[in-house]
Amino acid sequence: MFAIPLSGWLMSSTKGFQTVWFGVLPIPDLLAKDKALGELLQSVHSSLNLLLIAVLLGHIGAAFKHHYFDKGEVLTRMLRHRPR
Question: pLDDT tens digits for 22-69?
């Protein structure tokens, strides 16, 4: 989760885009403009995002598996509004 914004910041720096923190505070570039490095960092940034989505879907799938197949109470404990 820390690598995704860092890789995006590095990618923006190498591609020549100004990075602005929450649309308010411009932050300095960490690297000089470099087209080849920018493309590599874009690939790293995209891969990290896909990995985060895969991990998230895996966790959701595991919660449903424990609830519906193993008949555990993991999902019930997470969703407290449901009766036990």
Answer: 989 999 999 999 999 999 999 999 999 999 999 999 999 998 898 899
pTM of this prediction? Answer: 0.80
Place of tokens 């995704």: 4
Domain ranges across the chain = 3-78
Residue 8 and residue 45 in contact, taking contact as beta carbons nearer than 8 Å: yes
DSSP the chain: --HHHHHHHHHHHHHTPPEEETTTEEE--SS---HHHHHHHHHHHHHHHHHHHHHHHHHHHHHHHHHHTS--SHHHHHSTTS--
